[in-house]
Amino acid sequence: MPQLASIAAIDLGSNSFHLVVAEPRDGHFKVLDRMREVTRIAAGMDADNQLTEAAMGRALACMARFGERVRHLPHKSVRAVGTNALRRARNSQAFLRLAEAALGHPIDVVSGIEEARLIYLGVSHGLAEENGLRLVMDIGGGSTELIIGQRFEPIAMESLHMGCVSMTERYFGDGRIDAKRLRAAEIAARQEFEPIEEAFRAQGWQSAIGASGSLLALSDALTLHGWSDDGITRAGLYKLRTELIGLGHINQLARFGVREDRCPVFPGGFVIALGAFEELGISRLRVSDSALREGVLYDLMGRIHHEDVREHTVQTLMERFRVDQAHVRRVAETAQRLFSAVAAPWELMAPEHEHLLQWAACLHEIGTTVSHSQYHKHGAYLLEHLDMPGFSRGEQRQLAFLVRGHRRKFPVLELAGLSEPAQNVGRRLCVLLRLSVVLHRARRANALPAFTLAVDGATLKLGLPRGWLGEHALVAADLEQEASYLKSVGLRLKFR
To answer: 3-class SS at 451?
Structure first.
């Protein structure tokens, strides 16, 4: 199997941004370069959840420096993911346009559950092979992910809306640490864990692993004082709690060996860890150097070598929603034929364009499980809001748009809701899906005749064998209707 020279993962976290450049080697990788910068974009949001100019400036300067390192790499070799802060920021689209230009590569904002999956993938590849269940916890700047899994497969995943930045700002914003504040923060953390406590304890695990700067810093502090010789323990956390009260202020944390850039968020990470130990019954947590960015690298290698988890997700959804797989596969095959005919003139040359069309064809009828009436709208809602392993939020929105737009009036308003780069691609892929669905309206297993599709500016010319439309009057009527629908987006459909 051919190896790529280099691949890169960029983790746009709520507290810091990370870049890892690596060389794939027989299913694993050798790290060639690492970069890390503290940006604190989660702390740089105003009361309306808007990224401030200062926060955006820090982040964009970092993206420009990362871009110097990876801009020369092909898009398929680089994946950048945004997490909680970019999920929350109301002006994230404006920021992402600038960040992508600075980096030279697209940026995917992932859901909390997808973030959890990637964290587990990175951690599990960094551990010795074990057959038992393991609990993985990652405390980020704005969210905390917990996963129970076995070997490389996650079984249960949760993403909680608290992180070391948000918790520190809320309870220790002025830097002071005292018993009253710690107690209030601990209770708040335990309240966040409470809804998942019963399910996670019932599932159980044989080992617990922590991954994140917060948990590594905690482990280092406990080891430095001799309160633990193997990761983080509950007894060690209790001793650290007493010492924190004695310190009284964040600016004294260097005494625990905490890095200067970690000190401002250390108390929040501590109370979240203690809350997890108490609420979930953790007694010991080993720490791992691998986390989200390593998971992104392994996921990227899977995509490159055609082991894309998104394919499995689509197949799982087809089975879960009981779609007529024979029919949607026929629609997908026709969509592929149409795509091949116009990919070059319509500039649909990226592999992701073809993938999106195929996945949308396979999933365009999942809404029928809700109701056949308006099923395209039900399907779009499901695809936008379901947990879909491997898919970014942007990809889910694109799929939702294609499914929403595969029949009836062309969804002009929904098209406007896509990012600017996705709008032109979305319009064209949607047209191809719509034509495929129309041609298979009768849902017959009979193969379609040879046909042609050509584009000339805003005109599409669909050619069918002489006399075929006369024998298929309903298809002809549907194509007439489709021609009127496409006028709303400035396209002219001709067929003969």
So the answer is: coil
Q: Are 366 and 383 in contact (CB under 8 A)?
A: yes
Please name which of 83, 128, 90 lies closest in space to residue 110, comparing C-alpha atoms: 83
- Please give the mean pLDDT across all residues of the chain: 93
Mode of pairing for the β-strands spanning 107-109 and 16-25? unpaired
Q: How many CB atoms lie within 10 A of CB 63?
A: 26
Q: How far is CA 42 from CA 110, 192, 198, in A?
A: 16, 19, 30
Q: What is the per-residue pLDDT for 230?
A: 84
* CB-count exposure of residue 387 (10 Å: 0-12, 13-18, 19+): middle
SS3 159: strand
Residue spans of the domains in the chain: they are 7-110+295-301, 127-289, 308-495
Which option is the CATH number for 7-110+295-301: 3.40.47.10, 3.40.1280.10, 3.30.420.40, 1.10.600.10? 3.30.420.40
Among the listed residues 259, 299, 256, the one whose alpha carbon sits nearest the alpha carbon of residue 117: 299
User: Is beta strand 16-25 parallel, antiparallel or unpaired with respect to 7-12?
Assistant: antiparallel
pLDDT of 4 above 70: no
Using the 8-state DSSP alphabet, how is residue 448 labeled?
P
Domain 308-495 fold: Hypothetical protein af1432 (1.10.3210)
Considering the four listed CATH numbers 3.40.50.620, 3.30.830.10, 3.50.30.10, 3.30.420.150, the one that applies to the domain covering 127-289 is 3.30.420.150
